[in-house]
């Protein structure tokens, strides 16, 4: 059986032939350790040269539309051109989950 993480990896690899690709399952950070629902994607590919950030995100969302319509609850995207990737010193870390509840007003 192929995991959802592997499906996402395969789809993005097939579509973009990226210079760099990481698909990280962050579900454990959100109180759902047995669930494949929260992912972070770090990708650098030639296709993103000259594209605005919104265009890059839309391109990935289109490839993953079935997953986003179903099991994927959250997808953090870090999308770079090869030049941007080589200039990057570190990828932003994911924020701590707030558990989906309202914040205490006090």
From TrEMBL:
The record's InterPro entries line, in alphabetical order, gives: BolA, BolA-like_sf, BolA/IbaG_stress_morph_reg
Write down the Gene3D superfamilies for this protein, in alphabetical order: BolA-like
- What's one GO-annotated cellular component? cytosol
**One protein family per Pfam:** BolA
Q: Which Gene Ontology terms describe the biological processes this protein takes part in?
A: DNA-templated transcription
- Note the superkingdom of the native organism: Bacteria
* Signal sequence region: none
The entry sums up its family as follows: Belongs to the BolA/IbaG family.
Name of the featured protein: BolA/IbaG family iron-sulfur metabolism protein
Q: What is the lineage of its organism?
A: Bacteria, Pseudomonadati, Pseudomonadota, Gammaproteobacteria, Alteromonadales
